[in-house]
Amino acid sequence: MKRIITVILALVSCFIAQAQTNNDIELQRLDSLASIQTNIDSTIKYASLELDLAIQTEQLAARAKAQLALAQCYSLKNNLEKAGELAKYSLDVFNLLNDSARQASCYKLLGLVSALRGASGNADGLYNRSLELYKAMGDKASEAGIYRYMGLLCLNYKVYDRAYEYFSRSLDIDQQADFEPGIMRDMYCLGYGQLIQCIDERGSLTQLNRAKADLLKSIVNDNSGTHMLNVSCALVDAYLQQAKMTTGRAARAALDSCLIYISHARRISKATGITRYTSRIDLRKARHTLATGDFVTSNQMLHKLMSEMEDDYENNISVIDELNAAFVEYYETTGNYKQACDYLKKINEANLRKNSDGYLVNSTQTKIQTEYDEEMRQREQSELEKELTFAAENARFRMMLAIVLSVLAALIVSFIVIYRNNRRRKKNNLLLNEQNLKLEKQQAEIIKQNELLSQKNEEIEKQRNEIEGQRNYLSSQNKLVSNTNRQITDSILYAKKIQEAAVPSQDMMNGFFGECLVFWRPLNIVSGDFYWAVQVGNYKFLAVADCTGHGVPGAFMSMLGITLLNDIVMHENVAKLTAARVLDNLRQKLKEALRQTGRVGEAADGIDLAFCIFNTKSTQMQYAGAFRPLIIVRNNEIIEYKADKMPCGVYINETPHFTNNIIDLQSGDALYMYSDGISDQFSGGPDMRKFTIRRLKEMLVEVSTKPFSQQKLLIAKTIDDWRKPPSKIGKMSAQVDDILLIGLKIK
After folding, report:
1. How far is it, in rounded angstroms, from Cα 21 to Cα 27?
2. Helices 180-201, 140-156: crossing angle, 10 deg rounding
3. Is pLDDT of 19 > 50?
4. Which of 565, 556, 659, 647 is nearest to 604 (CA)?
5. Burial status of residue 604 (CB atoms within 10 A of its CB: 0-12, 13-18, 19 or more)
6. Angle made by CA atoms 332, 334, 337, in degrees to the nearest 5
7. How far apart are the first and last CA of the chain?
């Protein structure tokens, strides 16, 4: 029994430790998620979840960390009161925990909140406390950041020399550490200080340009956070001042630059959720509108802003000072000097309040207030210590109560388990005897099954032998088919050589017509498309033909066509031959060779072709066509000569003679004749669209000005790209017919 209790206590301790570990892991996860967010609203979401879990698990350190993160977010959302409350609570906890780094962060944030709410004296004291802690820790980057804050505080009181001294210290520290983000912020502070001094003292355009140059140097690629919002707002102020100090095109360019940085600031504010700068951006938009001369709109914008700011005066003190200055500028511009004086008085009153807050005047009132604040802080810290002590005692009590209850529950469960195990053991013995009897019966049944399996195996062996014999027979048949296919393919390949020998080579074509294009792509090794050319005396003959069918049948027809064309040209008086007469003779000879009479049911094989005759002593040519047209590209325009709508062969609607066309050629003309293989080619993908005559003509116009060697490559690429699927997923569409295209250039 002692062992059981010991084991139970160990299990309970492990369970409690595991629960605590899981909570710690979840807190770390939420803290990481809150720290990596680029949008303030998302950071608030995860920090709030972290705070709820820390309160639930009574982990004060985690609670203070979450509240510090929320305080930083609320300061960027311009909820300064809530930011201050959360930061003060976190500071008290970190003081007890002696966490110097987070103490310094709290003092820095409280100083910023005080500065934004116009309490610059308190802000200076808080910044100094933070600075002391950072120096003690050796955190140079954070030390430089405090110097920047203190310098900006000096600018608020126009103490420019002290401000530049702080900014120079910060820059020296960041340059020694080669800390690029810090250097960018230092350049902003120096540029902003020069800008404020230039505006305040009505400095020269050269001083303004120096300030603007430093501000532009501080621009970084990272558009998140407050730095680029500060830089954008400062650049808007700089360009507005430049517009005042210049005229004409320079002033208009400065105002255009204002709009760019106003839009940039709005985008950053929207993307990051930082709303503290919304009123500042709106104010600069109103000042830009005033600078462009739109007095009515700028007046409406300024009064709307003042109404919004006065509703939340404490959180908008610094913006209200800028807004009063904008009203002075507006009323001076519109000539209402009385109203300008009224707002100037408000600015002077605000400056008097600043000087009386203890930053420049070391008054007794401030000292008393500081002592009072310290007393209140110590009192709150004492109360917090009591709260921590009570929370620790409460946690210990809960843990002991949980342990006792867990032990009792474990004992009860152990007794129940032992009792059930005894009953289960007896029941299992009875079941075991029954199962032994069943096993004996099953063994007898297995013996019978083994005998049946032996018989089945003998039958399977016979079937396997039969299948082996059939497989060997199929293998021999496959070898026979493969050999037959190879012999047929070899025969067709040899027939291809014969067909290629029957048509003119590229060199022969170049010899007849100069440089020319021969694009010939058979569908099945040999082709039903062929071209034929010959020169007799001063006459050059050229045919581009598409026979019925493709592959071997088409090749037979092509050889017949080549033979008949040679016979017609070689046995006729070429001087009296016309292109139409050649087609008439070819049609008659094909009918005789194929024994075509026009009866129903007989073969209707024939040849579609374009036929041309060139006279080397003139610039004229003859053309006749049987379903195949002639295309001339002249000055990037298409000239098409239609073919007769009948083939060379038997045809139900044939006319007695083909049409003979006399064509005057010009230098630079590009002539093209082709079969229907290109226009009928289907595209890749599910649409299965044809290439069409229209696309073929567009392609010929596009390539006609290039050398024929490039034309051949471009045409091949265009056809292959057409066959590919649009999304490059799937197979290329198959070639559907023989392809032939011949091109000539007239020189």
Report:
1. 10
2. 10
3. no
4. 647
5. middle
6. 45
7. 115
